[in-house]
Write a structure and sequence with these properties.
Elements lengths: L19 H8 L13 E8 L13 E10 H20 L8 H6 L9 H17 L3 E8 H6 L7 H19 L7 E6 L3 H15 L11 E6 L6 H18 L6 H6 L21 E4 L9
Length: 292
């Protein structure tokens, strides 16, 4: 009958007829290369303080580097969702990037109506950190003692990075992940700094470590504007760790939460204790620190 087309789909949508050999190939897809298997964990890194030694801020004479280690399943299903909901609730959108410095100084989007508003905001954010399951690895460099030991040519960032990567390897070994690539996400700081950091990272992972062996870590340099929940949490935890070492007797609610997240000597049953020298390294070591 005129106007009849057997190829015309009944639902009115256009169809594309492929040659037989193409259809056969499409029905049995093949990968061009073996899929790379990655580790089950993701690491987000941030810092607090200036890593230079030319001048030392008397109010904050430390440099802090923090690794927040998340299981990817928990991170995607719980952590990201909690952060996104928090942003929508307080800002109406999720484009905002949470920065500890801006929150503390009440600049940019973080201008609170009053003290009650700020405390409520911080309480909710602290609650999210408390509920988020991650393992914390951190190194605090005391720049004053470093200079006293005539190590003024040392790079605090590189010193802290070495400790954190070695401890991360111990953690991944405990988790049975030592043979899988684990990505370590770091914020960009500037072309020269980024280049130096990447070289140091690769040097440590290529064998310049405690065991003289290769470590299966891969560095990812992320733009500062990246709206990453993991990077924002890493930014929020670094300064409370620094303050806890400078003023151990001062109330520090954030650190009270964080100390239960440090990688520690006794495993999960000992969280909140025996983390000094393990998940938390202070360098140069204070006299009271227990030898590892």
């Amino acid at each position: 009958m005129a106007g009849t087309n057997d190829d015309q789909p009944k639902d009115g949508q256009l169809s594309l007829q492929l040659p037989d050999h193409v259809e056969e190939a499409a029905s049995t897809p093949r990968l061009s290369a073996q899929v790379q298997q990655f580790g089950s964990y993701i690491v987000y890194v941030d810092e607090s303080g200036d890593h230079g030694l030319a001048s030392v801020d008397a109010q904050y004479p430390v440099f802090v580097l923090s690794f927040c280690v998340f299981h990817k399943g928990h991170y995607t299903e719980k952590v990201v969702t909690a952060i996104e909901r928090f942003k929508f609730r307080h800002f109406g959108h999720d484009s905002i990037v949470l920065h500890e410095h801006e929150i503390r100084k009440e600049t940019g989007a973080f201008k609170f109506n009053d003290r009650a508003h700020k405390h409520a905001f911080l309480d909710e954010l602290t609650g999210i950190i408390e509920e988020s399951r991650f393992i914390l690895i951190s190194c605090v460099i005391d720049k004053r003692r470093l200079r006293e030991r005539q190590q003024a040519d040392s790079n605090p960032y590189h010193l802290a990075l070495g400790f954190c990567l070695e401890t991360l390897h111990e953690l991944m070994t405990e988790k049975g992940q030592q043979d899988f690539p684990t990505h370590v996400v770091v914020e960009c700081r500037g072309s020269k700094e980024d280049r130096d950091l990447e070289l140091e990272f690769r040097r440590i992972c290529d064998g310049e470590n405690r065991w003289s062996r290769r470590l299966p870590f891969r560095i990812i340099m992320a733009d500062k504007k990246t709206n990453s929940s993991g990077l924002q949490l890493a930014d929020l935890v670094a300064r409370p760790i620094g303050l806890s070492t400078l003023r151990p007797g001062q109330e520090n609610r954030a650190f009270d939460v964080l100390k239960h997240k440090f990688f520690c000597r006794g495993g999960r049953k000992r969280t909140g204790s025996d983390y000094e020298g393990w998940g938390l390294k202070i360098y140069p070591s204070p006299e009271s620190e227990r030898p590892r």
